[in-house]
Amino acid sequence: xxxxxxxxxxxxxxxxxxxxxxxxxxxxxxxxxxxxxxxxxxxxxxxxxxxxxxxxxxxxxxxxxxxxxxxxxxxxxxxxxxxxxxxxxxxxxxxxxxxxxxxxxxxxxxxxxxxxxxxxxxxxxxxxxxxxxxxxxxxxxxxxxxxxxxxxxxxxxxxxxxxxxxxxxxxxxx
Length: 174
Ligand code: FEO
Fold this sequence. Notes:
By secondary structure, this protein is an all-alpha fold. It has a single domain (about 5-160), classed as Up-down Bundle (Ferritin), CATH 1.20.1260. The protein contains five helices and no strands. It has helices spanning about 5-35, 35-65, 85-110, 115-145, 150-160. The chain starts with a helix and ends in a 16-residue tail after the last helix. Bound molecules: MU-OXO-diiron (FEO). MU-OXO-diiron binds next to α1, α2 and α3.
């Protein structure tokens, strides 16, 4: 049983995770337009992972007897000037999502909803990892600066990213 405050907050986060996926697809499209296929592949994988996050909220709301209420997804930004701008915005977005998860946790604590608190712990840990991985890419872009060869090698490296499987699953979408 979910109280309305928690159910609404979980639905809001479900929307935010889908928006995150939408945003990263838009960033990937910008990288594709710039012939940075490795950057694009990294962001496409990130977008897929965001949909697995959304699926976790979807499943949890239903499991707790709540009602999933889908809302409109805001249109993401379409153009970025540079890969540096893409990853600065990615880090800023992940920091925003971390704050949203913290706010959601506060609501669950206020409502004494222990099951939701335990569910959200996975996301608290995940956000630490997401900020770290995005920060590492951002750091590499800054080190490469304007070196065409450096960008070529970084593009190759980012294209190697493999989807992260959720614990206990065999496919990223499960
Ligand atoms: Fe699902 Fe990147 O936060």
